[in-house]
Amino acid sequence: xxxxxxxxxxxxxxxxxxxxxxxxxxxxxxxxxxxxxxxxxxxxxxxxxxxxxxxxxxxxxxxxxxxxxxxxxxxxxxxxxxxxxxxxxxxxxxxxxxxxxxxxxxxxxxxxxxxxxxxxxxxxxxxxxxxxxxxxxxxxxxxxxxxxxxxxxxxxxxxxxxxxxxxxxxxxxxxxxxxxxxxxxxxxxxxxxxxxxxxxxxxxxxxxxxxxxxxxxxxxxxxxxxxxxxxxxxxxxxxxxxxxxxxxxxxxxxxxxxxxxxxxxxxxxxxxxxxxxxxxxxxxxxxxxxxxxxxxxxxxxxxxxxxxxxxxxxxxxxxxxxxxxxxxxxxxxxxxxxxxxxxxxxxxxxxxxxxxxxxxxxxxxxxxxxxxxxxxxxxxxxxxxxxxxxxxxxxxxxxxxxxxxxxxxxxxxxxxxxxxxxxxxxxxxxxxxxxxxxxxxxxxxxxx
Length: 448
Hints:
Layout: H1 9-12, H2 27-36, E1 42-46, H3 53-60, E2 66-70, H4 77-87, E3 93-94, E4 100-101, E5 107-108, E6 113-117, E7 128-129, E8 142-147, H5 151-161, E9 166-170, H6 177-192, E10 197-201, E11 220-224, H7 230-244, E12 246-247, H8 252-257, H9 263-276, E13 287-288, H10 291-317, H11 334-342, H12 347-352, E14 354-355, H13 356-366, H14 375-383, H15 385-391, E15 399-402, E16 407-410, H16 413-421, H17 424-430
Parallel strand pairs: 1-10, 1-11, 2-9, 9-10, 12-13
Antiparallel strand pairs: 3-6, 4-5, 6-8, 7-8, 14-16, 15-16
Helix pairs in contact: 9-10, 10-16, 11-13
């Protein structure tokens, strides 16, 4: 008789940095991703947060076949390229940060240049012979000098030493827009050389990088990880349930409906349903998940998500009431009114995305100085909304503006769940109003 394998609930359900046992393959995503790795284009995997981007990589790309760089708001292209070289065990010597003269007239200029030891494998390349310097250093080695600011130079190094590995950029959305644009131009060079980057980013519109560099059109393959269908969710729930010997039949419909198309929320609610039922690992006998277990899980996740989202809202609206040097007017406090709108708009409208025209109309309606709210000012705010969140250390960002469609979209998949289950009136009341003293009276007609 074969003993049934015992699984821990945390290894079956939930959001983790490793592949969980309830992962299911979706042909439109997994198969498309595997094919994309072979078509010679750069690969972009995108979607809302916690929708399966990292899991897609873990499932379909063995670790030995790639090197990964975790991006942050402080990351520059030079940091990415240095990390890649280090992970590939490519030895290099960084140039001096100040000018260094040599006996035979050569010098090293400050900048982002490196020298890689010249070996037989690099025959045919122009090599630089390092001479005895006036500092007394006496050694003679052959080096090839490369400029890490040039994608062409990086391509040459990777072609020689890169071992054809895929290069993964995780959390691409954390990079500043300037860095994203620089990398979009570099990708054009890498694609020509057959060097494949796999970029993971939180956004919901297609052709994000093409907006930075139109020459990438037809040179990248995009893999959206959304949408998840009801059938997908049922497969995940039932696969995990079979491994843990639990039955979700009584709550499947309500669980899926209340998760707002987020696999991350489904996974977390399933985990806490099991925990509420006392299932920390595969049960010895079948356990039925009830509506009480589901409600306990919803309450738990609402509380957990609430801590982060409430803090994000507070950080988002934290602005200084300064007078503009250009206009002489007080700040219009778009961040405050944007969150106010988010907390007072009918939920169905938020799910569909808010058009720029709708945002302008609604902010004017609730603003105490509506005549000062101009479309151009709102547009500037929306175009910089991702950078605003980065500046406020909101990670990952929870909203994004699609410039092409002129629509604001929530990109943190847990925010829908939180907005549905939280007390929005209470959160709004706790937000600091930068114009409380100027406001003539309470705003009416707000919808909750």
